[in-house]
TrEMBL record:
InterPro entries per record: NAD(P)-bd_dom_sf, SDR_fam, VLCFA-Steroid_DH
Domain of life: Eukaryota
Molecular function GO terms recorded: oxidoreductase activity
Keyword Lipid metabolism listed: yes
Positions of transmembrane segments: 12-32, 185-204
SUPFAM superfamilies tied to this protein: NAD(P)-binding Rossmann-fold domains
Keyword Cell inner membrane: no
Organism annotation: Triplophysa rosa (Cave loach)
GO biological process: steroid biosynthetic process
Keyword terms of this UniProt record: Lipid biosynthesis, Lipid metabolism, Membrane, NADP, Oxidoreductase, Steroid biosynthesis, Transmembrane, Transmembrane helix
Family, as annotated: Belongs to the short-chain dehydrogenases/reductases (SDR) family.
Protein name, as recorded: Estradiol 17-beta-dehydrogenase 12-b
GO (cellular component) term, any one: endoplasmic reticulum
Length: 315
């Protein structure tokens, strides 16, 4: 009894007890949040009946964009597909109309150019847009030192126009009517490469960091007006851009990725979109020291570069 009283009078005992209670509380919150996002999810929010008739997807003819167009059509949205190649747009729009029995509209535009927005604006005029997916994006054909990137001058313009300007301009065109209707969802597809600097993909990585910051800032500005703006940060997904064909648990197909991602809308302002990616995001940002992470990422990119250049040499 005497020793218990002594223990309770010891400040170290209370520091320890408060620390353990705090860690327990943090763990419980972490688990509760994980269950809410990854097990329960918010699968019913993104529906045409709740948000409005049309969904607009940029870069909609391939990969992740095509998977968004299909999944949103399955959820009852009429789809505006925007991409560069009209034949591919026609093919995808026909397939979506016949499979999901929804209206579609196509707009061909090269997001590498900056004079396309009046054309897109008139294509979208009068539509009740519930969802905008700013998906279009390009990356390096292989990791490279900045000054050695082939055609660096046009590469810089293309990457900034496609990855950054498109997100700002499409948001400028679509957001005002969402604000008038006090509802709407904008999904900005950034990348896990935007969560920390990726040497040898510096321009891509920083363009995606812009998309992430822009989304999070805007979400705070327009949340009170009923608009959700989410920053989506995938790791690898099997698409042309990633040049990965075989899906694994940590590299999903675009369809699997998009299904999982849509369940996180309204629950996370910034999301890796898919549970294994969220775990990878947590390990790389919360557990690994920045120096270790940068060293590892640089090593991976250098070895990808060496492999690519060797293949090129072999012809
Ligand atoms: N795949 C991944 O592992 C991964 C990981 C993280 C983030 N992301 C991001 O996810 C987004 C989609 O990537 P993805 O892998 O699905 O790419 P993808 O398979 O290469 O598809 C890109 C789409 O964008 C269109 N597009 C490309 N350049 C265009 C341009 N200048 N103007 C208009 N449309 C253009 C393409 O249409 P056309 O064929 O007609 O040009 C195609 O529909 C990108 O923002 C990317 O950065 C991807």
């Amino acid at each position: 009894m005497e020793s218990l009283h002594e223990l309770l009078r010891d400040p170290l005992y209370w520091i320890g007890a408060v620390t353990v209670a705090w860690l327990l509380l943090c763990t419980l919150c972490f688990l509760f949040n994980g269950i809410r996002v990854w097990i329960v999810g918010n699968g019913n929010l993104v529906r045409a009946s709740r948000l409005g008739k049309w969904a607009v997807v940029t870069g909609a003819t391939d990969g992740i964009g095509k998977a968004y167009a299909e999944e949103l059509a399955r959820r009852g949205f009429a789809i505006v597909l925007i991409s560069r190649t009209q034949e591919k747009l026609d093919e995808v729009s026909k397939a979506i109309e016949s499979k999901f029995n929804v209206e579609t509209k196509t707009i061909s535009a090269d997001f590498g150019c900056t004079d396309i927005y009046p054309k897109i604006e008139s294509g979208l005029a009068g539509l009740e847009i519930g969802v905008l997916v700013n998906n279009v994006g390009v990356s390096y054909s292989y990791p490279e030192f900045f000054l050695s990137v082939p055609n660096i001058d046009s590469f810089i313009n293309d990457m900034i126009n496609i990855n950054i300007t498109s997100v700002c301009q499409m948001t400028r065109l679509v957001l005002p009517r969402m604000v008038d209707r006090s509802k709407g969802v904008i999904l900005n597809i950034a990348s896990a490469s935007g969560m920390y600097p990726v040497p040898l993909l510096a321009l891509y990585s920083s363009s995606k960091a812009f998309v992430d910051f822009f989304s999070r800032g805007l979400d705070t500005e327009y949340k009170s007006k009923g608009i959700i703006i989410q920053s989506v940060l995938p790791f690898y997904v099997t698409t042309k851009l990633s040049k990965i064909r075989r899906a694994t648990i940590d590299i999903p197909t675009p369809e699997r990725y998009v299904k999982a991602q849509l369940s996180t809308v309204g629950l996370q302002t910034q999301s890796n979109g898919y549970l294994p990616h969220a775990i990878m995001g947590w390990v790389t940002t919360a557990l690994l020291p920045t120096k270790v992470l940068t060293k590892y990422v640089t090593k991976v990119c250098l070895s990808q570069r060496a492999r690519y250049l060797k293949k090129q040499k072999q012809g």
